[in-house]
Structures are given as C-alpha cells and as structure tokens.
C-alpha cells in the first residue's frame, strides 16, 4: 500500500508538543484506519541538522536522521516552533533546506512559530497565515508580504497550513486527517485521543488575547475580572469604575492606558467573545445567548456581532459550531484496536 510520508523538521530548542501533538494524531489515525480501506497510512520521518540526538526546549531528546534523509517526494512537511526560533531563523542552511523540501511536498504545515521559518524561506509571500497570537505583530512586521491573521487557530492557504500556539497543531493535524481520510476517521481519532472537542480552524484565539489584556494594575484587573463575571448584566462605565474604587473619568483614562482600549469597547469585545464560545459549544437559542452575554435585545446582539465579525450569529454557528465526536462514530464494526 502506498503511504503518506510526513517529514518533521527537528531542531535544537524546538517545542516538543509542536511535534508530538500532530504525530500522535497521525499515529492514532493509522491505528484506527479500516484495514480493508485503500486509504494510505502515514509514515513519519524526523530529520535534523543536529542529528542524531536533538534536545527540545523542555529537555526531551528526540532521535532524528540527517537532513539528507529527507530527500525525495514528501506528502506533508511539518515545521515546529520553539524557544530557540531566533537561532533557527539565522541558520541559513536550515531555512534553505525547508525551502527546497517544500518544493517536493504536496503540502507544508507549521505549528506556532514554525510559520516564521516558512516566511523566512519566502514560502508565505502573498499568502494568509497565522502564528501564536503573542507573536503575530512581530511576524507581520518582519514579513510584510505575508497577511498575518492572529485570530484563527489554523489557516489553510493553498498547500500551506499554519497553526497558532502549540496545542493547535493537534487541531491542524486532525484537519489534515479529515482532508485525507474523511470526517469519520478524524472524529474517531479525536474521540480516541480523548479530545473534548474537534475544533475547526476558524475558531478563535480570541479568549487568549482577552486573557492577555488583563491589566497588571490591581484596580483595573479587578474591574476586568468583575466584568467577566457579570456579562449578563448591564455594565455602565460608572458601575465598573466603582468596582475599581475610582472616579469614572480617572478610571476611563487609566483603563485605556493599561488595556489599550476604552471600557465600553472592552465590554463589547468580551460580550462577543463569550457569545462566540456559546455559539460554538452549546445549542442555546440566539435570544438566550444574547441575554447571557448582556445584550439588551437580540437586535442589539445582531448589530454588534455583525459589526465585529461580518457574520450573523446564525451564520457563525453554522460555520463553527463544534460537534462532539461521541455519537457520530459507527462502532458496530469496531475491532480490537488497543494501542498497547
């Protein structure tokens, strides 16, 4: 049977989960493949300029072959990120090898900061890509020919698939399995790995961005935490300022300085973020979600949601609602597929 060759680029200081997350998805998919299926399984090769033993940022040591072992046709080239990314970007031999390997690959995937290496090789020019939300501005500044989208958990543009921070490499790998073998195997793989949800690429890093906006200044941070716990209520600025024990005028000034946005804008963004989560993960009605998120009426919710995302809540739910894998998998033909 033909196989889908996955070549993983390993370098000193890379993040282990950027590598092990996706490859566990591929390995699990292999074990769940119907033996009578004509779908080719995955075979994974690890290559590195630092072969044979490469130490990850966490101290985990991985065994890899020299880069030369990665010659020949490649189905999927996988490039991880890591805390040593600055050094990797200065390694012209590594960047050049990635560029050449990409030309021999059906598709190229990156996890977290691995998208910087693809961009450094010129592979993402004129394309849309993502990376970890904390580094999106740096990537956009360094590579102006790349359209950096900090919001999705992964972006697929032509043969290039870039994913956001660390664990989103698992989501990306599940999407690759779905593209190769269909939704049923991808969902069964997610279920077998005990993943709570199989997330679609369009889901957002937004909650992480909001968490990152929590201020260091204790009164402002306390006000933000109070907002998060009271989204179902009206939140006039005067009331929020009282939670910070500040005058409304001083609170608004300090809040903007610490958070980078006005209190009203922050409240609206937080309401929308909560609404997106409920649209993705519950069957609550649109009116119920509007109420839980503090919108005075569904019409207000529709206007705010459309202004922020360019979609109606119903359209958003249709695109991004997550379906739990359990219950969708036909188990009547299940065989003994124990991994041990």
What series of H and E elements makes up the topology? EHEEEEEHHEHEHEEEHHHHHHHHHH
Helix proportion? 40-55%
Structural class: alpha/beta
User: What's the number of helices?
Assistant: 15
The termini sit apart by 24 Å
Strand percentage lies at: 5-15%
Strand order of the largest sheet: 5-2-1-6-7-11-10
Overall shape: it is globular
Sequence stretches where pLDDT stays below 50 over 5 or more residues: 323-340
Summarize the biggest pleated sheet. Answer: 7 strands, mixed
What is the mean pLDDT?
Answer: 86
**What Rg, in angstroms, do the CA atoms define?**
23 Å
Question: Please, what is the oligomeric state?
Answer: single chain
Number of strands: 11
What characteristics describe this protein?
340 residues, alpha/beta, seven-stranded mixed sheet, two-stranded antiparallel sheet, 15 helices, 13% strand
Written description of the protein model:
The chain has 15 helices and eleven strands. With 340 residues, it is of the alpha/beta class. A seven-stranded mixed sheet has the order 5-2-1-6-7-11-10, with helices on both faces. Strand 10 and strand 11 (160-163) form a beta hairpin.
In a nutshell, what does this entry contain?
This protein is an alpha/beta fold. Helices cover 46% and strands 13% of the residues. It is globular.
Which SSEs are present, and which pair or pack?
Blueprint: E1 4-9, H1 16-32, E2 42-48, E3 53-55, E4 61-63, E5 65-66, E6 74-79, H2 85-90, H3 92-103, E7 105-110, H4 114-120, E8 128-129, H5 136-142, E9 147-148, E10 154-157, E11 160-163, H6 168-181, H7 183-192, H8 206-212, H9 218-229, H10 237-243, H11 248-259, H12 263-281, H13 286-292, H14 298-309, H15 313-320
Parallel strand pairs: 1-2, 1-6, 2-5, 6-7, 7-11, 8-9
Antiparallel strand pairs: 3-4, 10-11
């Amino acid at each position: 049977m033909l196989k889908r060759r996955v070549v993983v680029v390993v370098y000193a200081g890379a993040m282990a989960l950027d590598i092990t997350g996706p490859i566990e998805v591929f390995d699990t998919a292999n074990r769940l493949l119907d033996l009578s299926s004509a779908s080719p399984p995955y075979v994974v090769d690890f290559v590195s300029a630092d072969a044979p033993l490469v130490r990850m940022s966490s101290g985990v040591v991985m065994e890899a072959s020299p880069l030369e072992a990665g010659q020949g046709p490649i189905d999927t080239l996988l490039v991880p990120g890591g805390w040593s990314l600055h050094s990797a970007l200065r390694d012209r031999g590594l960047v050049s090898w990635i560029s050449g390997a990409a030309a021999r690959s059906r598709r190229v995937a990156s996890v977290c900061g691995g998208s910087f290496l693809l961009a450094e090789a010129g592979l993402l020019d004129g394309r849309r890509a993502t990376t970890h939300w904390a580094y999106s501005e740096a990537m956009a500044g360094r590579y102006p020919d790349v359209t950096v989208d900090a919001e999705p958990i992964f972006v697929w543009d032509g043969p290039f698939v870039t994913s956001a921070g660390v664990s989103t490499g698992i989501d990306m790998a599940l999407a690759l399995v779905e593209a190769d073998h269909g939704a049923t195997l991808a969902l069964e793989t997610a279920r077998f790995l005990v993943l709570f949800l199989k997330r679609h690429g369009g889901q957002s890093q937004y909650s992480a961005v909001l968490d990152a906006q929590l201020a260091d200044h204790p009164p402002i941070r306390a006000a933000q935490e109070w907002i998060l716990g009271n989204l179902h209520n009206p939140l006039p600025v005067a009331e929020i300022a009282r939670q910070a024990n500040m005058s409304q005028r001083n609170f608004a000034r300090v809040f903007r300085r610490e958070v980078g946005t006005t209190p009203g804008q922050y409240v609206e963004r937080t309401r929308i973020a909560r609404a997106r989560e409920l649209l993705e993960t519950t069957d609550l009605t649109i009116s119920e979600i509007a109420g839980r998120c503090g919108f005075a009426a569904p019409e207000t919710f529709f206007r705010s949601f459309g202004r922020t995302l360019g979609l109606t809540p119903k359209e958003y739910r249709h695109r991004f609602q997550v379906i739990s894998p359990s219950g969708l998998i036909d188990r009547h033909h299940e065989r003994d597929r124990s991994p041990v």
